[in-house]
Amino acid sequence: MSSETPCIAVCMIDPRTKLCFGCGRTLPEIARWHKMDTTERLSVMSTLPARMAEAGLERIEPRPKRA
Known about the structure:
This is DUF1289 domain-containing protein. Pfam families: DUF1289. It comes from Bradyrhizobium uaiense. The protein is mainly α and 67 residues long. It has one domain. The chain is 36% helix and 0% strand. The longest helix has 18 residues.
């Protein structure tokens, strides 16, 4: 995972909160991510843990890859 993305390849949007269960971003944020500069990305990433907690969502962890 890059230090400039919270994506963990668990792309599922909660229908109630509209947040991704894997990273906590909204669909508009995900769509714009590649256009954001580093400062904006880091700013969004700094809000994600609190955003998920406030929404009552637990991050879904990716499944380990099988050998």
